[in-house]
Amino acid sequence: xxxxxxxxxxxxxxxxxxxxxxxxxxxxxxxxxxxxxxxxxxxxxxxxxxxxxxxxxxxxxxxxxxxxxxxxxxxxxxxxxxxxxxxxxxxxxxxxxxxxxxxxxxxxxxxxxxxxxxxxxxxxxxxxxxxxxxxxxxxxxxxxxxxxxxxxxxxxxxxxxxxxxxxxxxxxxxxxxxxxxxxxxxxxxxxxxxxxxxxxxxxxxxxxxxxxxxxxxxxxxxxxxxxxxxxxxxxxxxxxxxxxxxxxxxxxxxxxxxxxxxxxxxxxxxxxxxxxxxxxxxxxxxxxxxxxxxxxxxxxxxxxxxxxxxxxxxxxxxxxxxxx
Amino acid sequence: xxxxxxxxxxxxxxxxxxxxxxxxxxxxxxxxxxxxxxxxxxxxxxxxxxxxxxxxxxxxxxxxxxxxxxxxxxxxxxxxxxxxxxxxxxxxxxxxxxxxxxxxxxxxxxxxxxxxxxxxxxxxxxxxxxxxxxxxxxxxxxxxxxxxxxxxxxxxxxxxxxxxxxxxxxxxxxxxxxxxxxxxxxxxxxxxxxxxxxxxxxxxxxxxxxxxxxxxxxxxxxxxxxxxxxxxxxxxxxxxxxxxxxxxxxxxxxxxxxxxxx
Lengths: 324, 262
Description:
The structure holds two protein chains of two kinds. By secondary structure, chain A is of the alpha/beta class. Chain A contains nine helices and 17 strands. A nine-stranded mixed sheet of chain A has the order 9-8-7-10-6-1-4-5-11. The radius of gyration of chain A is 21 Å and the shape is elongated. Chain B is an alpha/beta fold. Chain B contains seven helices and 13 strands. Chain B starts with a strand and ends with a helix. The mean pLDDT of chain B is 94. The chains are: A alpha/beta, B alpha/beta. At the A-B interface, helix 5, strand 7, strand 8, strand 9 and strand 12 of A face helix 3, helix 4, strand 7, strand 8 and strand 9 of B. Strand 17 (302-305) of chain A pairs parallel with strand 13 (240-243) of chain B.
């Protein structure tokens, strides 16, 4: 059976959820071989094995943290060569983060392979893996495949369920020699983002977002209170971010994060195309807005026309009461 | 010292229009008005700011690959203050994918001459966000991408990249490829004077032979990916809308409970 390389996104050995989702998809097209790089790489093996990785290729070096993107491309290229030498390679899957897409793109170019980004589903096809993408602010769904070389595909978070599928997960050291370009862009400092204690926005099952209607940074407390009652992540529309009410890292929309949770609650958001582009693929959409004519109501499964300052706190109380 | 900046820009279908696919599953560019991709305006803006903050002699060239109408995007960038423009236009480019686009851009950037390439973070139509990285790979120069802050001094480019997990400070020697986000600073509006001056600025037109490229290397036939189908997403079925008469929060909670979210 052909193998599928899965690039592991981890923080000091803690594997992030989208990588486990990739393993679910990888198993549909071949045997997953994971590639984990940098500090803590070997510690990823146990959880990767639980979710289907037959092998885990690891390499630790300071270059992965000290220089941008290229060292990781060099390593992934080495992994492709190692797997191809011993068998056949069906695809390379990479999580669709900003960095993941850059790594995948440079790898595809080096391999002379086609590239598909931001897939939301993946299945085996007669001529290689078929990727589903959601385009034009999610108004169209396309099915694409790579027509040359080994398919290099990046997959968005929440595209598949995390499934237990125990496999060997044998750790093997990957030999990597860095290219001349590897040290081109130096990372001179790194400030970790402060943890909010809430789920990661792109990975969360529930997202509660606030927009222009929230009308001030201090008022985001009521959005956060609802999010916390539901165990949700907090998002914001571009209008709210541009006004300085909430950080850009929480922006949902075309120039921010694209989210696809089970439940999306939009509060005081009109639903402009820029916002819809980032949330339209959510499974269930709920909106609260004063304006009955707001375009967001065209998307909702359930909508409340009303003042969010009345409805959101009432909802929060009700959720807390029901959860006991 | 002189500093040659090339800003890559894209002419895209207006996102507020009704975007569709053509019969060959490429983006339909005929039925929707086009414009300079909003995210590329930030790239033009940062080039202008680098120029304004520099003691060097800075020359800004805007470069686009696209059909005849794409000239409108160049004109907009020139009216914002860029010095000259290059339009790569060839019928054989129809259907070129991101990898092919990076090839054409790399050839054009090399022909134009550059110390710094500045791109937007992504186009507003394809939204892949990979062309700057591909361009750096092709040119064999440092990739300093997704910057929300950028500066150039003494042959070094520095910037801040705000990632999911951390904010990083980056540094690389020129020549380099930079991309900037929409957090890098509001793009200026062209002034009346700028619009008038733009009419007199040179716009060169190059085709594939000028770049020593063959038709087979680009276009739909040269693409390394194939789109097999494009289906319009069915409109979401009309949901339940209630007016808050004091019970809105409670009703919403009942709905969420019925859907097993609470």
